[in-house]
Specification:
Layout lengths: L17 H12 L10 H13 L1 H5 L16 H14 L21
Helix pairs in contact: 1-2, 2-4
């Protein structure tokens, strides 16, 4: 099955695998959880999905906007991913390493 998302990916530096494109399409269409090991697989999928949903994330939550959440088992991975999102988007990024550090996500801007 062909997915149109592959057309929007620069392939000079990185060519996604078919399953990555399929996971990206499924995540865009439905609210799913993608569980992958460490490495570029989860980074590509999560960053592309955040970029795809950026217009919905920018909209205020009270007006039907969305939030994204990246969960990892290591603080270093969370930090690196937060830096990547900040670098590749204009979205506001919160970085939390412990549940006790996290604000009430319904009130977080």
């Amino acid at each position: 099955m062909a997915y149109h998302y592959i057309d929007n990916v620069c392939t000079k530096a990185f060519t996604p695998r078919e399953y990555q494109v399929e996971l990206l399409a499924a995540a865009k269409e439905r609210n799913i959880i993608v569980c992958l090991g460490n490495g570029p697989n989860k980074v590509f999928i999560s960053l592309k999905l955040i970029q795809e949903l950026a217009s919905e994330v920018r909209r205020p939550y009270q007006s039907g906007g969305k939030k994204t959440l990246f969960i990892s088992s290591s603080a270093a991975s969370v930090h690196q991913h937060a830096l990547s999102v900040q670098h590749l988007t204009d979205l506001s990024v919160g970085e939390y390493h412990e549940i006790s550090d996290s604000p009430d996500l319904n009130n977080h801007q």
